[in-house]
From TrEMBL, chain A:
Biological processes per GO annotation: aerobic respiration; respiratory electron transport chain
PANTHER family: SUCCINATE DEHYDROGENASE (PTHR11921:SF41), SUCCINATE DEHYDROGENASE IRON-SULFUR PROTEIN (PTHR11921)
Top-level taxon of the source organism: Bacteria
Protein family (similarity comment): Belongs to the succinate dehydrogenase/fumarate reductase iron-sulfur protein family.
Protein name as annotated: Succinate dehydrogenase/fumarate reductase iron-sulfur subunit
GO MF annotations, alphabetized: 2 iron, 2 sulfur cluster binding; electron transfer activity
Entries under Pfam families matching the protein: Fer2_3, Fer4_8
Organism: Fibrella rubiginis
PROSITE patterns registered for this protein in UniProt: 2FE2S_FER_1, 4FE4S_FER_2
InterPro entries: 2Fe-2S_ferredoxin-like_sf, 2Fe2S_fd_BS, 4Fe4S_Fe-S-bd, Beta-grasp_dom_sf, Helical_ferredxn, SDH/FRD_Iron-Sulfur, Succ_DH/fum_Rdtase_N
The protein's required cofactors: [2Fe-2S] cluster; [3Fe-4S] cluster
Annotated ranges, domain 4Fe-4S ferredoxin-type: 150-180
UniProtKB/TrEMBL annotation, chain B:
Topological category with respect to the lipid bilayer: Peripheral membrane protein
Domain FAD-dependent oxidoreductase 2 FAD-binding: 36-448
A cellular component term, taken from the record's GO annotations: plasma membrane
GO molecular function: electron transfer activity; flavin adenine dinucleotide binding; succinate dehydrogenase (quinone) activity
Subcellular location: Cell membrane
Catalytic activity: a quinone + succinate = fumarate + a quinol
Pfam families to which the protein is assigned, alphabetical: FAD_binding_2, Succ_DH_flav_C
Record: active site: 337 (proton acceptor)
Protein name stated in the entry: succinate dehydrogenase
Domain Fumarate reductase/succinate dehydrogenase flavoprotein-like C-terminal intervals: 510-644
Cofactor: FAD
Record carries keyword Transport: yes
Length: 250, 645
């Protein structure tokens, strides 16, 4: 296949960026999208030009590292998949593909297609855990957790922290990401004791990081590679409102 | 050099308890005065960093990804073993110990493996308390499955994402300690050297991957939790960034490297498609519980399939060879990984492989779907089937999956004693980075167990003993000459990589190294091939340093530079792997030497001469490494030839 690429190039966080055109001739439909970028980078390096910087690691849709905004969609045209799971067979011969980084105030660009998502880590640090020290756990089967509850927790816990939800949202809100974590722990008995305070702290940190407000358009859930459901946002809102009513902290 | 394993005296079942009691403790008020560096935040590193911080130590943790949550552990699919015996099917700590030591083909220490089985039960309790959503039965009890040929159901799992959920549990514990100020986290930071002074590990030199800044970090102890080196083969199921750099640079500073040739080739991966292939994807071992492995009986049929003239579903039952079931009637499709992989290779070597490349066999679910219904199969493997379809563009509910072996795990690693300390005092190695518990072959669902055992339940005890012995004043400031010298060395290496103005990219050289390793030090090895490989690797090393080119600057994000540094270390490691494979004149576990096999082609161990750990000592650039042997002592198990017939 022949592919025309327009790729966002930006030397570093302080430099201005722009879209640069590249043409690739020998692309196999069986290549993954990132392997297509490997080919581009190989060509660039042989010409003595700097390769395009982009985040990636597992290349199988689980680490959450890859993060490309492709033709106006986070992770590209395929739903329920990450950038690394996208294959060139999703495109036609001669297509023009525009590739940009995640765009959000809370995710500053580091270089080219690579952004800084450490805001997500700080949101988790603010309360995304159960406070239990190593060695203080009781037998795992002492608390019965019906399969339906465990499944519901797992549905939420699948979030890979990629940030596509933020990139897809016109307000760059992180609600789906935060809701997934709050929900995962709130439905489980182990997480209940801290459910309200967790919601409250995580939402406060999300706001402090500069993520936008949620206007419930649902774009996030559509682009989420793990298809995290909007129901979790509803649960987060419940936990959060509950927290506001009973909170001693606010 | 005297390799003291420090396995405690006494009966097997009492060793760990006695040892813990004998270890020195650090006074709680003093713990914060001790600084500990943890490199790596996978299961081993995140669990260790969190647990040590909870105890009160001051911790610095490092990873090269943008977040600790993204370590390669996240990719583990199948599950984690624990001797809970919740299923009442005869499991016990001793049975898990026995299976693991036998599975490792009797090349691991009894004491270590027993301890691993012993603490396995605590791991599950800990993870559940953190909120890890393991699979459950309708009544609310934890579900288990049998995995990788185990005769009991002792594997705990979270859909096909067990590693992810365990890591997110450890990451949440780590995050809590970061918030408490007990752990300072350095993401996008790569360790490039270890600082040793006065015979002790004193700290590390790092490069900030965003700014390129080279920095020194000092501590009382350094824990390497940096994962395995499978990417020495270029193509593997490991994440793209997985590398040996931290361990290798520590090796060059005096830490012995043990059994480097023990690598695991996993039988069920998606086959290679083209030259551009950048990594291989694992299809979980659990698939072999229901899938049947086969290849066409005749070369002619295989040829037609390769050309697309025949579909696998066209082939009648009698024209298929279910080769694992045929050769191993007792275990069938559930033989251990090394055996399954080797047999797939034989079949393809005979010209009976499928896919365009001829390097694939089938894993067929048709019978399972007929027996249990599509819904049941979908519930068990739905996400794996989806993943397969996304990559291969084939529907495994309708046509058999194609699989081929791929490099997956490395049993070898830094030599450690029972306390997980390397041969450098104050330097520890945890998780896949050490060599300790899996002998010559790792059983499924036991790496996650080992990583978490090391981090949650072993090192928090054993580290205190060392720290209490040295005292908190015994720390080197970063201004010390040893740090400055190491910084200068690292800067020199970076400059050297950037100044080469040759033709080839680090990626190309890495790929070439991978081919050499796969062809001569992969699924089967011979003295002749290994000798040839050694020469080829030495030539490649010259090529690397004379004809390579890295574009870009040192003072900013430069992924090609990162890769070049890692490839340089992989080349040196590759040569040592070949030496190790050559020196081990027997077949055991994942190490199959063609010269040493039984009449029917099974691995032939030589317990009289090779029941030892091979630990290699670095002697300088381009100097042969020196082999030290730690004899393995077996008092509780009888060494038998593994048989799965
Ligand atoms: C696809 C796949 C599936 C698997 N499935 C299973 C399974 O079902 N069950 C099972 O038991 N095992 C499984 N395994 C094996 C298991 O996942 C690994 O052995 C284990 O997770 C390794 O954990 P670790 O903590 O030792 O290292 P890793 O998780 O690899 O972590 C390494 C860490 O070190 C850091 N690091 C490395 N080098 C440096 C450096 N120089 N500087 C700074 N940081 C560095 C990385 O950033 C990372 O944080 C699987 C492996 C693969 C590849
Ligand atoms: S909610 Fe979905 S899109 Fe958002 S970070 Fe998680 S996995 Fe990515
Ligand atoms: S590279 Fe890991 S999810 Fe894409």
């Amino acid at each position: 296949m022949k592919i025309n690429l327009k790729v966002w190039r930006q030397k570093n966080g302080n430099a201005a960026g722009k879209l640069v055109d590249y043409k690739l001739d020998n692309i196999s439909p069986d290549m993954s999208f990132l392997e297509m970028f490997d080919v581009l980078n190989d060509e660039l390096m042989h010409k003595g030009e700097e390769p395009v910087a982009f985040d990636h690691d597992c290349r199988e849709g689980i680490c959450g590292m890859c993060s490309m905004y492709i033709n106006g969609r986070a992770h590209g045209p395929q739903t329920g998949a990450t950038t690394c799971q996208l294959h060139m067979r999703s495109f036609a011969d001669g297509d023009t593909i525009i590739v940009e980084p995640w765009r959000a105030r809370a995710f500053p660009v580091i270089k080219d297609l690579m952004v800084d998502r450490s805001a997500f880590d700080r949101v988790v640090q603010s309360g995304g855990y159960v406070s239990v020290n190593t060695g203080s756990a009781r037998d795992a089967n002492e608390t019965l957790i019906p399969r339906t509850i465990a499944d519901e927790a797992m549905d939420a816990a699948q979030c890979i922290g990629c940030g596509a939800c933020v990139a897809a949202c016109k307000n760059a809100s992180a609600m789906l990401f935060v809701a997934a974590k709050v929900s995962h722990l709130a439905v489980l008995p182990q997480g209940q004791a801290e459910a309200s305070i967790r919601a409250e702290r995580m939402v406060a940190q999300m706001d402090a990081e500069g993520f936008g407000a949620c206007s419930f358009t649902g774009a996030c859930s559509v682009e989420c590679p793990k298809s995290i459901s909007l129901d979790h946002i509803a649960r987060l809102n419940r936990e959060y409102l509950g927290a506001k009513i009973t909170s001693e902290a606010v | 050099m005297n390799l003291e394993s420090k396995i405690p005296e006494g009966p097997l079942a009492e060793k760990w308890a006695r040892h813990k009691f004998g270890l020195k403790l650090v006074n709680p008020a003093n713990k914060r005065k001790y600084e500990v560096i943890v490199v790596g935040t996978g299961l081993a590193g995140a669990s260790a960093a969190a647990s040590l911080a909870e105890l009160g130590y001051t911790v610095k943790a490092f990873c090269f990804q943008d977040s600790p949550r993204r370590a390669h552990s996240i990719a583990a699919q199948g599950g984690i073993n624990a001797a809970k015996n919740y299923q009442n099917d005869g499991d016990s700590v001793f049975r898990l110990f026995y299976d693991t030591i036998k599975g490792g083909d009797y090349r691991a220490r009894e004491g270590n493996v027993y301890r691993l089985a012993e603490v396995s039960v605590n791991i599950i309790d800990q993870c559940v308390a953190q909120g890890v959503p393991f699979a459950r039965e309708y009544g609310g009890l934890l579900a288990n499955r049998s995995f990788g040929g185990a005769q009991v159901s002792r594997t705990f799992y979270a859909r096909g994402q067990t590693g992810q959920q365990l890591l997110l549990g450890a990451y949440s514990a780590l995050s809590r300690q970061i918030a408490n100020g007990k752990v300072k986290m350095f993401p996008r930071t790569e360790m490039l050297d270890l600082v040793v002074e006065g015979g002790k590990a004193r700290g590390i030199i790092t490069r900030n991957l965003v700014t390129g800044k080279i920095e020194s970090h000092s501590a009382h102890a350094v824990l390497l939790c940096t994962g395995g080196y499978g990417n020495v083969f270029y193509l593997s199921t490991n994440a793209m960034g997985s590398n040996v750099t931290a361990a290798w640079r520590a090796h060059k500073k005096g830490a012995l490297m043990a059994n480097p040739c023990f690598t695991q080739i996993h039988p069920t991966c998606i086959p290679v498609k083209g030259k551009y292939q950048s990594k291989l994807t694992l299809m979980s071992e659990s698939l072999r519980n229901d899938g049947r492995v086969w290849a066409p009986k005749t070369k002619e049929d295989a040829e037609k399939i390769r050309k697309g003239e025949l579909k696998p579903t066209d082939l009648k039952e009698e024209d298929r060879d279910y080769f694992l079931e045929r050769r191993y009637p007792a275990f069938g499709n559930l033989v251990p990984r090394d055996v399954a992989s080797r047999n797939a290779k034989y079949v393809c070597d005979e010209g009976r492989g499928v896919a365009a490349t001829g390097l694939a066999v089938y894993l067929d679910f048709a019978d399972a779907i007929k027996r249990d219904g599509r819904t049941t199969i979908e519930a068990k493997y739905g996400n794996l089937f989806e993943m397969y379809e996304k990559i291969v563009d084939d529907n495994p509910y309708e046509t058999p999956m194609m699989i081929y072996p791929a490099v997956h795990y490395t049993m070898g690693g830094l030599w450690v004693d029972y306390n997980l300390m390397t041969t450098i005092p104050g330097l520890y190695a945890l998780g896949e980075a050490n060599f300790s518990d899996h002998g010559a072959n790792r059983l499924g669902a036991s790496a996650l167990m080992q990583g978490l055992a090391d981090g949650y339940f072993v090192v928090p005890y054993t580290l205190g003993d060392y720290l209490a012995t040295i005292g908190h004043a015994d720390k080197l400031p970063v201004e010390a000459p040893a740090f400055k010298a190491a910084e200068a060395e690292v800067k020199h290496m970076v400059d050297r990589l950037l100044s080469a103005k040759g033709e080839r990219t680090p990626e190309e050289i890495h790929r070439e190294l991978g081919h050499i390793m796969w062809d001569y030090c992969g699924m089967s090895r011979s003295a002749e091939g290994l000798k040839k490989a050694k020469g080829m690797i030495q030539d490649l090393k010259k090529e690397f340093w004379t004809n390579m080119r890295v574009v870009g600057d040192a003072e900013e994000m430069n992924q090609a530079l990162e890769q070049a540094g890692r490839v340089a270390d992989f080349i040196e490691l590759g040569e040592l792997m070949v030496d190790d494979a050559l020196a081990r004149e027997e077949s055991c576990g994942g190490h199959f030497r063609e010269e040493y096999q039984t009449e029917d082609g099974e691995a032939l161990r030589d317990d009289a001469n090779f029941a030892y750990v091979a630990a290699w000592e670095y002697k300088g650039d381009n100097q042969p490494e020196v082999l030290h042997k730690e004899e393995l002592v077996f008092e509780n198990v009888k060494l038998t030839q593994r048989s799965y017939k």
